[in-house]
Amino acid sequence: MRALVISGGGSKGAFAGGVAQYLVEDLKHNYEMLVGTSTGSLLITHLALSKLEKIKEIYTSVNQKSIFNNCPFIIKKERHGKMDIGINHINVLKNLLRGRKTFGESKNLRKLIERAINQEEFEILKSGPKEVVVTVANLSLNQVEYKSINDYNYQDFLDWIWISCNYIPFMSLVKKHGCEYADGGFGSMVPIEEAIDRGATEIDVIILETEVMHYNRMPSKNAFELITNMHNYMADRIEKQNIRIGKFVASHKDVILNFYFTPTVLTTNSLIFNKQKMKQWWQDGYYYAKTKNSNLNSISE
Known about the structure:
Low-confidence stretches: none
Shape: globular
Distance between the termini: 26 Å
Strand content: 15-25%
Mean pLDDT: 90
Number of helices: 11
Number of strands: 10
Largest sheet: 8 strands, mixed
Radius of gyration: 18 Å
Structural class: alpha/beta
Order of helices and strands: EHEHHHEEHHHEEHEEHEHEH
C-alpha cells in the first residue's frame, strides 16, 4: 500500500502542495492512504480527490484574514523586506476579556475549510477506497489521536481538519467531545509510524523543514517572538523524534520511505500567510520534486 505523509508547517504547506502535485500528476502515484498533520491535514483531502488546481488556488490566495477572525499579532515591513512581527495588544486584550484561553482566534479558517470541501466531495471520498487521516492533539487526555474520514460525518471531519491546524496559543483552542484539542504537531509532527501501523508499505514523506538546521535563531525581541521560538524549538525536537522512530519502524517492517525535505529555509514564522511567497513556494516544491526524481533516475541509469 502506497501512502503519502505530510508534516505540519503552516504557510509552508504551499511547498508541500507543489511537491505533491509532481508526485500525483507527473509520477502518477496513486495513494491509498494519506496522513497529514496541521497544514498537511488541509492538503490531503484535495490530494486524495486529485483536485490539485483547487487546493493550489486556495493556498496561493490566502492571507491573514483568511485564517484569523482575531489576529494576535501585527506585521510591519522593514528595510530589505524583513518582516518585524509584534503583539497586537488590543486584539489580545479583547480575546482575554471575552474569556478566551488563547491570544487569537482562527474561526475564519474553519469557514474556509467548509468552503473548500463541500458535502459532495466528502461523500465521494468517504465512499471511495482511499483513507484520509488527520492528526490532532488531545490536551485533556495528554495523547495524540488520528481521525480517519471513515469514522466521521461531514461536519465532524471538517472540525478535525481545523483542529489539526490550530497552533495554540495563537489560534483557537477547541473543545470537542468533552476534551480540549489543538494542533496535531504538538504530539506528532511527521506521522510516519501511524501510516505504517495502518498498513503502508511505501511512503512518500514531505517534511516542511530542511534536513539539516541551516540557521541560528535571533534573540527574541518581544513575548510573541519568545513563545514562537519556544514552540519552534519543541516542534523541531518532535519532528526529529518522529523521523527517527519512523525510520526504525520502517526498517523492521521492510517499509520504503522516500523523503522530501525543503532544500532551503522558507520562513522562520509559518503563521505569516503571504500570497506572493506561497505562490513561489508552490512552484519551488514542484520543481524540487522534479529535480530530485530526475537525479535519482540518472543515478539508477
